[in-house]
Amino acid sequence: MPIADSVRLGENVRIFHPGLVNLYGCTVGNDTRIGAFVEIQKNATIGARCKISSHTFICEGVVIEDGVFVGHGVMFTNDRYPRATNPDGSPQTEADWTVGATRVRRRVSIGSNVTVICGVTIGEGALVGAGAVVTRDVAPFAIVAGVPARVIGDVRERK
Asked: pTM of the predicted model, to two decimals?
């Protein structure tokens, strides 16, 4: 089943194509909408009234607060130094690495095809432009774009 029994869904959560998602061990808040081909892993939390667009990957260690828009094809990471094997050549297990936490504060908008490297906080109301790679914290209400993402404006100055 693509939506595991371990998933905690709030009231009025809409999953547009339940057979085309992979959710397990996560929490999704009230009135959140989830598109097709989304994966949300264990120990990830999505707040209330969020929109998670199609083809998005939200891994363990990610906390998304209320009212966040996540565009199509957004990728979160949770390991700054990923490896398939240990130095001795043995396959890595969960015991061999530490989950890097990421927090997305309320009312953030993340454009399509953004990559968020673990260990960052995207501040309240910030806007991340399509295709950006977020490698460090984003200040509240900042507009960031590029690779790596850099501040190009402030959403409060938009007319």
From this structure: 0.95
